[in-house]
Amino acid sequence: MKNFLVALLVFLVWSVIGLWIYSFGHTSNFAKNDAVQDISAMETASPIAQKDTISIASEIVNIEKTPVPKEFQIFSIDEQILFESNQTIAIKKDSSQVNLPTELSVLPSLLASYLFEHPGQEIHITSNYSPSAKLQTPNIGEQRGNSFKKLLLDEGADVNQIVIKPVLTTANFETDDSLQNAMTFSFKLLDRNRIENHKSAIPDLITFYPTYNFDEVIANKKLTAFSDSVVSLHEAHPELTIKVIGHTDHIGASSENYIRGLKSARQIRWYLVTKGGIDRKNIIALSRGETEPLLRDGRPASRKENARIEIQFSEKK
Questions:
Q1: What whole-number distance in Å separates Cα of residue 85 and Cα of residue 72?
Q2: Choosing a second label site near 97 at 20 to 30 A (CA), which of 18, 202, 288, 293?
Q3: In angstroms, rounded to a whole number, what is the distance separating the alpha carbons of residues 30 and 25?
Q4: If we measure between CA atoms, which residue out of 266, 273, 289, 191 comes closest to residue 231?
Q5: Of 145, 176, 199, at which residue does a domain stop?
Q6: Quick one: 141 and 163 in the same domain?
Q7: Residue 52 pLDDT greater than 60, yes or no
Q8: pTM of the model
Q9: Which of 145-154, 231-240, 266-275 reaches the highest mean pLDDT?
């Protein structure tokens, strides 16, 4: 009897353990099924919701990849970007100077190279200036354009491919009288009619009759006006050399007249350099003495006509 009770007790214990194991395994399967159903539900969710999610993500990617336009850009004739920078060309209201920021220091060289590679095109330099700027001849916008033009010429650009366009602007200057993005550039097809008209605008000769005190040229309003006209032509044609030629009458020895004519030419050259601001290396002083008179009748009035200064423009050698 005792053995029977022990056996029954063992049977009951193992039965309880078996039921517990069975119950645990069944619960796990239910959990797994629920998890699978949840995943399946996510995968078979509304196509519209999935599409919206993908579309939004795609738009975010597109926004990130869209480049931000630079402040300063130069385009080719076919609207391709040739050069761009976050720095711009700034100017001062009453200054003709063009100071390029570091990032734009290579610009003249790049533009000159492009012009060389495209001889059928020309560059238009638009130079803004304020109506409140000091009145000058040529205007301050044209002077700035010519300053940049000189940078291009120094890099070997052809003068016939450069066009200056001064433009009055009502843009607001900063408190320090500076203006950003004051100069822009564009390319056009080469205008050969413009080139011919431009060449014909250069006078073959400018004649000036100085006022003398013995052999010294007197600085007066007449000389100032003459200097201004020469400076204006030089700024429009910085690629040309200025020849200042002194002429005299026939009174005295020819060698003395040659020296007298050269002295007058040098005094005019000095004035154009120191007062007009023309670079000394762009002016040559010469003398013809008495060898090229305008009139030969020997009258006093004719002698005055012969004693003169002539200005000629020539290509640099």
A1: 5
A2: 202
A3: 9
A4: 273
A5: 199
A6: yes
A7: no
A8: 0.52
A9: 266-275
